[in-house]
Amino acid sequence: MKDLEKMSVPKSNKIRVTGLSAALTAAIVVTAAIVVTAAIVVTAAIVVTTVFVEVQSPLLKLAKTAYAAKKKRQQIDLAKKKFYIQPLGRKLTNRAVNEVKISLQTFYGFKVQVLKRRRLPRFAFYKPRLRYRAEKLLSHLGRVAPKDAFRILGLTAKDISTTKGKYKDWGIMGLADLSGKHAVISMYRCKLGSRNRKHAVHRLAKVAVHEIGHTLGLDHCPTKGCLMEDARGTNKTCDREYLLCPRCRRKLKALGYKFPFSPRPPWPKPKNGV
Asked: Domain 77-258 is of which CATH architecture?
C-alpha cells in the first residue's frame, strides 16, 4: 500500500489532462459566442424586416393593384373568339340553325360562323336503336373543326344518345366536352311534346346555351329556371328556363370570361323563369 501511495502521475499524463481541459473550455467559449452572435443576427433581421415592410407597404399595395389590373386585362373576351356551328345532316332547318346562332351571340357574345353542312358520319350510327352516338359525333367535330375554332357546336335533327349509368344507350338532347371545345345537340327530343315548331326551336336554342356553358366550365345548376339546370331525362325543364342565373354568371366571370351583362333572350319569358 505504501508503495502505491508513493506512486506519482507521470508528467506527460498531466500535460494531456491539462490540454484537454483547455480545449473543452475553448469549445464552450466558441459555442457561446456562436449562440450569442446568432441571436443578435436573428433579432437584427426581424427589426430590418419590420422596418422594410412598414416602409415598403405602399409599394406592396401598388404591386397588388398592378397585378389585379394585369389579371383583368387577361380576361377572355368571348366576342373576339371564333365560334363555329356545324350543321350535320339535311333535315335541320335554316331557321333552327339561325335561332341557335342568335342565342349564342346573345348570351356569350360570340362571333358565330355557320359552316357548310356535312353528312352525319357513318361510324357514329348506332344500328340497334337507329340513332347516333353523341360521343362519336364529338370526336367527329374534333376532326373537322377549323384550326382557329375556340368552340364548335354540332347541330342535327337526328336522335342522339350516350351511355348513362346503367343505361348503355340513353337518348339525350345534347352532349359536351366539359371545359373542352366540342358540343353537339339534337332537335329530335326538342320536338317531343312541343306546341309547335317555334316552341321546339326555342328549346333547341336553350339546349345550345346549356351545352356551350358546359364547355366554358359551368356545371349543372340547382336553380330552377336557370339555363344550366339539369334536364333529368325530360325536355320540360327547357320550358321554365330563361336566363343564366346570377350564380352561373358569377362563375363565368370568376373563370375569366367577358360576356354580355344583360342579354335579351330570343324566347318569351316563362312564368317561373330566373
From this structure: 3-Layer(aba) Sandwich (3.40)
CA distance 26 to 9: 25
Average pLDDT of 235-262?
Answer: 93
What are the structural domain ranges in the chain? 2-73, 77-258
Q: Write the DSSP assignment of 214-235 as a string of letters.
A: HHTT---B-STTBTTB--TT-S
**CA 179/CA 102 separation, integer angstroms:** 22
DSSP 236: G
> Residue for cell digits 359552316?
115
pLDDT 10s digits, 188-231:
999 999 999 999 999 999 999 999 999 999 999 999 999 999 98
Predicted model pTM? 0.73
- What length is written for the chain? 274
Q: How far apart are CA 201 and CA 97, in angstroms?
A: 9
Residue 169 Cα to chain centre, angstroms: 28
Question: Residue 184's closest CA among 259, 105, 120, 109?
Answer: 120
Grid coordinates representing 156? 342535327
Burial class (CB in 10 A: 0-12, 13-18, 19+), 45: exposed
- Angle separating helix axes 94-108 and 197-215, nearest 10 degrees: 40
Residue located via cell numbers 348503355: 168
Beta strand 131-133 with 125-126: parallel, antiparallel or unpaired?
antiparallel
Q: Where are the beta strands (DSSP E) in 42-133?
A: 76-77, 82-88, 111-114, 125-126, 131-133
